[in-house]
User: Which sequence fits this backbone?
């Protein structure tokens, strides 16, 4: 659309000049072609060469940056992190603690390009879930930790975390906290709806009385894992957990979604659905339920929400410390890990975050502070509790792609 | 394109081409550079990605340059319902937003024309939602519509809603959220058109014995068409690609996924970049076709 020319003669001439100068179509196309050629060159990613760890400058720089999940660090009323502050005072290393991980997949999408180049991801240490750490390890993105620098870890790591085929001595990834996925529920609402005190199995989630009031976690390994367990599949074994078995479990979930049984499938925001009353029961993470009980509990009813293992078993996961090749403060990270493998520190942390500590001796240390909590099976599980939980087996790259696609398509209704 | 329709419709000044000057080229350079860097480059990269094939290494999220046209077939076949849903939602939401916005715009631009204070206040009210982040506003609706909310309890008590029915996650909730978020985009361009409406024309219509409806149909509405077209485009196009409202974390559920949600899941969750890119290209192509057909049909190319 053209506008009237300005009255001022000089401006008028300028506008005329600007209008009359036209760039030919051919010249424009040539420009596009040039850009395209440059881009094609740029998109040829460097070949996959063995990465080398960045030079460690921990001796001269007493700092480290830590990426972690929300609500994963003990916190006082002023929003300070007591254990972390003690570490900084004792070691002289200043820690930049950032809550950066909200979901393993989206975190990976954020950092994968830097990882691929062996560049700094902006963190010296991060705590993704174990399966994500194995992916990073298999791709050769991780530095190895030096056990000599972590005497507490060598002495106190729970034996169940050692001896895996992938990382028998735990030098690529070291457990930070672990937890269960089971069923979380609103005690009063569940009783009102079903007349029963508590759900006992995954089948109870599919009860007609709970139609439209059931939530599911969007974390594939937990929700599908729980359904697989309820179908009698051993999720630790690759012969039992085949692709067919996995797809059959997805079909079972789809059936419930199509029937309107499921209110929604969400990440950490399932907690909002539980606390606002949108849902009555959901697949849930153990520590979360303790946290919402702190917040929602009253003197009359200190624990309005419950958490149970389905009779077929719960899933078990662990979030682990990893240090990518691009990080330059590995030695400082080792000091940090050593600090959190001290039973007293581990106990203080576990009593706040309510997840399972991988540190042997933390239970005794916790008992000195709070005897009742030290018996809590969700924080300090005994052998019997652990035997009722299973960890999802590791998947190959192709399996991961197919399983995850099928799961996401289910969530998209596609 | 759409924004231009907001401008005044001045008579076209006739002029002959004169000598070409370098100044114009220099003046154009920043714009061309911007367009090249921020539009053509990503577009090229997007198309390139949409044709990639999985890397032979089997590593998740790694793809090799290829000419895998099949990605488009897969995207279309797998996600046809979501594509269809996106455009249906966008169409319905646009029509509802138009029905709500036109009277508002008319009131501000025509009825309140001679009362600057009222007009200013009303315009502020239309723009006010922009002062708060769209995410927060959508979250607020999530709270208002949640199962144990005051609103739902009241509706259930007076029998307007069944005891076990809900709003979040339904088509209604998503369309409501879309309409709500895009009403200002519809209202403002229509207001801009109606504000310039020459009321003497309406007067003349009445003088010629046309009733109110006929003057509206023959004078007011046609003269506000540039605003209506801009408004519908500014609403329809972003809604087709919206992924916040319909996402499971906001007002949506597994039954309401739109193309934006599919692209997000493929891009961020399963690192299936080719499918995500193919979907983006398809979305873009579909919008270009739909919009140009719309503009052509409404006979307003000269307005745009």
Assistant:
């Amino acid at each position: 659309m053209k506008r009237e020319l300005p009255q001022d003669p000089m401006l008028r001439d300028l506008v005329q000049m600007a209008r009359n100068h036209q760039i030919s179509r051919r010249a424009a196309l040539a420009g596009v072609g040039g850009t395209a050629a440059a881009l094609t060159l740029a998109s040829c990613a460097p070949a996959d060469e063995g990465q080398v760890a960045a030079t460690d400058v921990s001796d001269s720089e007493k700092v480290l940056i830590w990426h972690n999940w929300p609500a994963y660090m003990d916190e006082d009323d002023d929003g300070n992190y007591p254990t972390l502050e003690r570490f900084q005072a004792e070691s002289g290393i200043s820690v930049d603690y950032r809550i950066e991980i909200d979901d393993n997949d989206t975190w990976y999408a954020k950092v994968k390009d830097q990882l691929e180049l062996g560049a700094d991801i902006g963190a010296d240490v991060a705590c993704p879930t174990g399966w994500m750490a194995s992916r990073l390890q298999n791709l050769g993105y991780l530095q190895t930790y030096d056990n000599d620098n972590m005497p507490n870890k060598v002495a106190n790591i729970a034996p169940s975390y050692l001896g895996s085929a992938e990382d028998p001595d735990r030098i690529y990834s070291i457990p930070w906290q672990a937890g269960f996925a089971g069923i979380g529920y609103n005690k009063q609402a569940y009783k009102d709806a079903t007349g029963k005190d508590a759900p006992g199995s995954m089948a109870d989630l599919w009860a007609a009385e709970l139609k439209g009031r059931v939530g599911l976690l969007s974390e594939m390994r937990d929700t599908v894992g729980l359904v697989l367990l309820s179908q009698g599949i051993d999720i630790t074994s690759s012969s039992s957990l085949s692709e067919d078995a996995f797809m059959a479990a997805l079909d079972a979930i789809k059936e419930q979604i199509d029937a309107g049984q499921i209110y929604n499938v969400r990440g950490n925001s399932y907690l909002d659905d539980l606390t606002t009353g949108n849902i009555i029961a959901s697949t849930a993470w153990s520590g979360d339920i303790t946290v919402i009980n702190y917040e929602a509990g009253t003197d009359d009813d200190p624990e309005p929400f419950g958490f149970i293992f389905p009779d077929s078993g719960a899933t078990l996961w662990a979030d682990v410390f990893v240090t990518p090749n691009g990080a330059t403060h590995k030695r400082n990270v080792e000091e940090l890990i050593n600090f959190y493998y001290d039973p007293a520190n581990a106990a203080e942390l576990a009593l706040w975050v309510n997840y399972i500590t991988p540190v042997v001796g933390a239970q005794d240390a916790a008992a000195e502070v709070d005897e009742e909590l030290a018996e809590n099976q969700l924080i300090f599980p005994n052998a019997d509790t652990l035997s009722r939980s299973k960890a999802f087996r590791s998947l190959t790259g192709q399996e991961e792609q197919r399983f995850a696609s099928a799961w996401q398509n289910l969530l998209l209704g596609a | 394109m759409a924004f231009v329709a907001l401008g005044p419709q001045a008579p076209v000044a006739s002029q002959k081409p004169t000598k070409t000057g370098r100044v114009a080229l220099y003046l154009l350079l920043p714009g061309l550079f911007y367009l090249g860097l921020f539009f053509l480059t990503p577009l090229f990269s997007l198309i390139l990605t949409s044709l990639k094939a999985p890397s032979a290494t089997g590593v998740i999220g790694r793809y090799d340059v290829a000419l895998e046209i099949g990605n488009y077939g897969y995207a279309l076949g797998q996600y046809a319902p979501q594509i269809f849903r996106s455009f249906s939602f966008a169409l319905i939401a646009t029509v509802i937003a138009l029905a709500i916005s036109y009277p508002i715009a008319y009131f501000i631009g025509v009825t309140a024309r001679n009362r600057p204070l009222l007009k200013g206040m009303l315009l502020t009210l239309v723009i006010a939602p922009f002062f708060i982040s769209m995410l927060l506003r959508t979250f607020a609706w999530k709270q208002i519509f949640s199962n144990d909310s005051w609103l739902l309890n009241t509706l259930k008590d007076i029998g307007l809603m069944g005891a076990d029915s809900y709003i979040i996650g339904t088509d209604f909730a998503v369309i409501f959220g879309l309409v709500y978020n895009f009403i200002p985009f519809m209202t403002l361009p229509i207001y801009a058109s109606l504000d310039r409406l020459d009321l003497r024309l309406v007067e003349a219509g009445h003088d010629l014995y046309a009733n109110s409806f006929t003057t509206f149909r023959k004078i007011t509405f046609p003269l506000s068409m540039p605003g209506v077209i801009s408004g519908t485009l500014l609403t329809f196009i972003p809604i087709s690609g919206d992924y916040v409202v319909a996402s499971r974390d906001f007002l949506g559920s597994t039954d309401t996924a739109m193309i934006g949600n599919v692209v997000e899941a493929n891009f961020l969750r399963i690192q299936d970049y080719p499918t995500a890119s193919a979907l983006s290209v398809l979305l873009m192509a579909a919008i270009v076709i739909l919009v140009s057909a719309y503009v052509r049909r409404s006979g307003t190319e000269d307005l745009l």
In short: Chain B has ten helices and two strands. Confidence is low (pLDDT under 50) at residues 1-11 of chain B. Chain B touches chain A through 64 residues (CB under 8 Å). The longest helix of chain B spans residues 70-111.
